[in-house]
Amino acid sequence: MARPRKRHVQTSFTYRKLDKNGQHRGGPRDNAGRKPSGDFASHAKRPEIDKRHPQHVTLRVVPEVGWLRRRDTYAAVRHALRTVLARSHEFRIVHLSIQNTHVHLLVEAKHKDSLANGMRAFQISAAKTINAAYSRRRRLSERRRGRVFADRYYTEDIGSVRQVRNTLSYVLNNWRRHRDDAGAYSLFDGRLDPYASGLSFAGWREAIPEPLRVVPRDYEPLEVSAPRTWLLGVGWTRAPAISMFETPGPRKVARVDA
User: What span, in angstroms and rounded, lies between the C-alpha atoms of 214 and 108?
Assistant: First the structure.
């Protein structure tokens, strides 16, 4: 006897929505082609800068690199500074200080692209030399090639005399804020941070006594550019003088995440 023919039932299924190219891409995306994420944070586009205003830039390093306040890291950053000196017509690093986990820079730039390109050149050069120093220190068989700085850096537009004065103090005396001045390697009997460009700053309130004006023979100062903006060159002197022993307070201004 013949078996009854099995009846097949059409199964239903839902077609996924196709993208503009007629392909499946795993769900809706934004205009840039990225999938939405709950922890996604958008970064505002960098605004145009005023070339008359200095910019305070903060660069943070990734945790894997470790402390920056080391002799070999200092030499690496000094090498990177020489790299950007050739850009002095559009981008200048006027002052800099190296802290344990970040770097403060006070820069001048012709426009926002000059700032971005100058910072990119500095970061690339510094990353190469810092990775080389890290590899030598750890005696690695292969040179480290990983990331050194975080993807984003912070900028602050400095547009007034008092703001420039306070930022100069913040950058050059930042080691006192972090209490790295206590019993640490220093210049002129604890007066200046050896990991900052304070030696090239001529506006200190105090005069260094002659017996203390001894720079270690193996110490090479950071090579920074002379300021060209009125605010950094002359304007800040209309505010109270900056003491070598001043401890900066916290920054309470809005910064741009670049």
Answer: 31
Please tell me the distance from the alpha carbon of residue 122 to that of residue 74, in angstroms, as a whole number. 14
State how far the alpha carbon of 94 is from the alpha carbons of 100, 167, 198, in Å.
20, 12, 11
Which pLDDT tens digit goes with each residue over 154-181?
999 999 999 999 999 999 999 999 989 8
Distance CA 215, CA 174 (A): 21
Q: How far is residue 12's CA from residue 17's CA, in Å, rounded to a whole number?
A: 16
Report pLDDT for 13.
45
3-state secondary structure 91-126: EEEEEEEECCCEEEEEEEECCHHHHHHHHHHHHHHH
**pLDDT value for 3:** 62
Q: Which residues, other chains included, contact 219 with Cβ-Cβ below 8 Å and sequence gap of 6+? A: 187, 194
Q: What is the rounded distance in angstroms from the CA atom of residue 188 to the CA atom of residue 214? A: 7
Could you give all domains of the chain from N- to C-terminal order, each with its CATH number?
A: 55-257 (3.30.70.1290)
- The answer, yes or no, to whether residue 31 has pLDDT greater than 90, is no
Instruction: Please give the pLDDT value at position 1.
Output: 56
Residues 6+ apart with CB under 8 A from 48: 111, 112
Q: Mean of the per-residue pLDDT values for the chain?
A: 85
